[in-house]
Amino acid sequence: MSGFGVAVALPWVASAALHVYCRRVDRDLTPPWAVIALPTLAAASALSVVASLVAVATVSLSLTVLPIRAVGVLAVCFLLWRLVLAMAHLRKMVASARVASAFGREAAGREAAGREAGSRRGTVVVDSPEPDAFAVPSGGGAVVVTTGLVDALSDAELRAVIEHERAHLRFRHSMWTQICEVAAVIDPLLRPVVDRVRHAAERHADEIAARHGRAVTMTALARTALLGADRKRGAASYALPGTGGDVLARVRALSGPPPGRQRVVVVIAGVVALMLFSVVSLALLDVTQDVLFPEPGEAPTSVLR
Q1: Domain presence at residue 304
Q2: Model confidence at 33: pLDDT above 60
Q3: Residue 300 belongs to some domain of the structure
Q4: Which among 197, 196, 202, 210 has a CA at the least distance from the CA of 257?
Q5: Among 92, 124, 196, 270, which residue carries the largest CB count within 10 Å?
Q6: Distance between CA atoms of residues 205 and 197, nearest Å
Q7: Does 301 reside within a domain?
């Protein structure tokens, strides 16, 4: 029984550890690695938490002690609640993507001109006085820029902004952010990880844009952030704004040299953590299977001995 308790607790302990660790991820992971590693670990963590809840519910409800059965009922209720929230979140994302896909279809029908020559994704200029730019992956992908921002920035700064948004599309930052968002809906302990993934996605896009000049990219980011300082924006993941993440930290990073190579030891640690999540999840699912479908001659609760 003690081994089962440890296995059930491990996903929650690991999730809490990821909750704490994500605050220092900038020290260990380069932006492109952080964009992929954090959502992957968050998804594995959320799945292990689901496996933990399923195992607790299955085992508790198989016993006759009333307080223990009550624990199983609570586990079922909590799991169903989080899954319903996750489904609602997914429906909201799909609906938002359908609305945003109009930009992608419009961009797909346009010829790239001038600074966009050779690009497979177009840019949609929207007539609006609000200075804004964002990437919409729906409908084939599009970079949306308002006339307010076009008028406010120099040609070089505007190019940096567009290259930044194209990087979001090229490296599928929206997909990784959405994976992390769904994981955080299932496991609330992962909510801070979403912010770190968004920040890493912005830092990655900054570095791609900075290949055309770090100074101009830094000024473009600073000016865009200042122009939009008084404008409220929702946090929809299908549209990744250029002023997301910690703007001050992003400007500070652009003022220095580009990030170095990713340390191999950190990658190995991440792989080990992923394997740990997988092993614990499989072990908990095996317990669930043993209780629901015990082998011949095995009592349903004998797996706890």
Answers
A1: no
A2: yes
A3: no
A4: 210
A5: 196
A6: 12
A7: no
Token pair belonging to 56:
């607790």
Side-by-side strand order, sheet with 142-146: 123-126, 142-146, 133-136, 240-241
pLDDT at 305 over 70: no
pLDDT (tens digit per residue) in 146-158: 899 999 999 999 9
Instruction: Specify the number of domains making up the chain.
Output: 1
Structural Rg of the chain based on CA atoms: 23
What are 278's two structure tokens?
């997988």
Helix intervals (H) in the chain: 2-21, 25-28, 31-62, 66-108, 147-152, 155-170, 173-186, 191-209, 214-227, 247-254, 264-292
How many residues in total does the chain contain? 305
Bridge-based pairing of strands 123-126 and 142-146 is: parallel
- Torsion 180-229-30-22 (CA) sign: negative
SS3 303: helix
Verdict on whether the full-model pTM lies above 0.70: yes
Residues pairing with 146 in the sheet: 126
**Structural domain contains residue 303:** no
Tokens 């290949």, located at residue: 211
- Residue type for 67, please? P
Reduce the DSSP state of residue 241 to 3 states and report it.
strand
Taking every pair of Cα atoms in the chain, the longest distance, rounded to a whole number of angstroms, is 78
Domain of residue 177 covers 2-294
Q: Quick count: other Cβ atoms within 10 Å of Cβ 110?
A: 14
Percent of the chain topping pLDDT 90: 58
Helices 191-209 and 31-62, interaxial angle, to 10°? 160
Q: Are 142 and 240 in contact (CB under 8 A)?
A: no
H/E stretch holding 111 reads none
